[in-house]
């Protein structure tokens, strides 16, 4: 369940992810970095308002950080902090009751028993979300890939069905991590598995081997290269962006668009060092379009819809499936059923028809990994 606390951290995908060819290899890489699903014992995710309140006191924060480095006794902590052991005991007891520190060993010394305490994790992360109290609307937090149709869908549902979807574009990979860790109710992704040629489902099988999740197809959509109106640089394909005189604007690491680009560059033998602007990043398709429209870049990879809205030229490269992903147990909830009903009605198809490059043939289909 999502608690009413505040999001403090976003996840990042390893910068070498573009060199990987399959979802299995990518998941292995993810497991070596700080948000590893198999190394959670070294990281504590702060999800309690009481814990946040306790750590807002700089004295308790100082004690906790010392105990994250190594075990210590009351006397040792008092000496380091320049405080009486009784003072330390008062704050340490509160940290222990909150589940942030624990007694790890005792040692007899000079007729006394010294108690050694240690933090329960080597690092602690604040990553929660503040949500309003229940109201007439039914709120869902979606963290995932950016999509123009999704934003319009969220607005329609908010206005017409009192279902409030808060959309936070963090990228496909970060969205799956957020769903895995219970920060978001649902996510959205468009991740191509190079080994199988399948979208999204292989990633869901690897991210959620022990949990049932479902995918709902929102739409198929076309991506390609956006260029300035009239295409003054005469860009024809990805080969052209590696010439050195073309200024490129990239998407953020972990986004499905960035992962597709890095895979394709590898297939074409194009080195990222040759692409001017490869490390300049935008977090949404519309931000890429605006960078080109304002002449801060010559080209970028993104949605046809974003290019057309911004009045840009567009070179189509591929079509992809864009899915919503959520825990299977949420499918029967009223607010999710409202979304499913809307995806299958004429109004949603009309909404997609207003956006270039979108196809609604499979919209609303329920997929199981």
Query: What is the global morphology?
Result: elongated
Tell me the number of strands.
14
Task: Report helical residue fraction.
Answer: 25-40%
Give the helix tally: 13
> Structural class of the helices, strands and pairings?
alpha/beta
Distance between the termini: 22 Å
The fraction of residues in strands falls at: 15-25%
Largest sheet: 8 strands, mixed
Structure description:
By secondary structure, this protein is α/β, with parallel strands linked by helices. 33% of the residues lie in helices and 24% in strands. It has 13 helices and 14 strands. Strands 7, 8, 9, 10, 11, 12, 13 and 14 form an 8-stranded mixed beta sheet that branches. Strands 1-4 form a two-stranded parallel ribbon. Strand 5, helix 6 (148-160) and strand 6 form a beta-alpha-beta unit. Helix 3 (58-69) crosses helix 5 and helix 4 packs across helix 5. It is elongated and about 85 Å long. Residues 1-21 and 24-41 have low confidence and may be disordered.
Which key phrases capture this entry?
369 residues; alpha/beta; eight-stranded mixed sheet; two-stranded parallel sheet; 13 helices; 24% strand; elongated; disordered N terminus
Secondary-structure blueprint:
Elements: H1 23-30, E1 43-46, H2 49-55, H3 58-69, H4 74-81, H5 85-97, E2 101-109, E3 112-119, E4 123-126, E5 138-144, H6 148-160, E6 163-169, H7 172-180, E7 187-189, H8 201-207, E8 213-227, E9 248-251, H9 256-268, E10 281-282, H10 285-293, E11 299-303, H11 304-309, E12 313-327, H12 334-343, H13 346-353, E13 358-359, E14 366-367
Helix pairs in contact: 3-5, 4-5
